[in-house]
Design goal:
Arp2/3 complex 21 kDa subunit ARPC3, two-stranded antiparallel ribbon, about 75% helix, about 0% strand, globular
Length: about 250
């Protein structure tokens, strides 16, 4: 039984990866910090900071999969959703590029730590197969997309529901703000590594955030709307599983 579940999980990821490889990539800077762009000290620091979140994610996923084998299929779908969206590199008018993150859906369904582990896997595949991001910058990229983004999405979803917001609005805000905070975190990471020669970290932060702001706001809105659509489909056909995951 476990072998069959693992096989289904592997097939889901293989299909997504194969489909993504058919999309031509552009040689431009992306939201993922590229290979060799951070000093070794920063690479090690961000990587070490990610370790406890990834370990918690492993045990969280193990617990939820043991509770129901159907959760593995949902988890694979969330991973595939995040992989495809975060691999869509769209050129920015500033000469950089931006993309959705897709981590909000998985954070809502499985919690933020589960997406930390899934985020590492996604970023590793993208670095190796798509030249998107990098191995040395894996820790920094995991922290922004796999830790901060999911934590914000999960927190906003729970807070919105507690305040009485409808599910559609809660999901939209969760995905929208989780996407934006991923880019804010990346900007902070770059500002810390490359402070402005005259204004320091604060000026550098404004510059980096300005690079992403023009394209990322509409992308975050689109990601929020798309996440609502997927969530509503899951509620219709997998309501029991979502109830068990406390995602409804």
């Amino acid at each position: 039984m476990k072998t069959a579940r693992l096989k289904r999980f592997a097939i889901c990821f293989a299909v997504v990866i194969s489909a993504t490889l058919l999309v031509p990539t552009m040689q431009v800077s992306a939201m993922h910090i590229m290979e060799g762009y951070l000093a070794p000290g920063w690479c090690i620091s961000w990587g070490v900071l990610c370790i406890p979140f990834v370990l918690l994610g492993f045990f969280s996923i193990k617990k939820k999969v043991n509770a129901s084998s159907k959760n593995l299929t949902l988890l694979a779908m969330c991973g595939a959703f995040a992989f495809v969206l975060s691999a869509l590199k769209l050129p920015s008018v500033t000469g950089s590029c931006s993309h959705p993150t897709g981590v909000g859906l998985g954070a809502i369904l499985f919690g933020p730590t589960a997406m930390s582990l899934i985020g590492v896997i996604i970023l590793l595949f993208q670095a190796i197969l798509l030249a998107h991001g990098g191995i040395t910058t894996l820790g920094a990229n995991t922290f922004s997309m796999g830790i901060v983004g999911p934590i914000v999405s999960f927190g906003i979803f729970k807070l919105s529901k507690k305040l009485g917001a409808k599910s559609g609005l809660a999901v939209f805000l969760a995905a929208f703000l989780g996407d934006l905070m991923t880019y804010v975190t990346t900007s902070v990471q770059l500002a810390l590594a490359y402070p402005d020669s005259t204004g320091g970290i604060a000026v550098s932060l404004v510059k980096f955030m300005g690079i992403f702001a023009t394209t990322q706001l509409p992308l975050a809105i689109c990601e929020g709307l798309l996440t609502v659509v997927i969530y509503n489909v899951l509620v219709k056909y997998n309501s029991k599983e979502l109830h068990d995951l406390s995602a409804i």
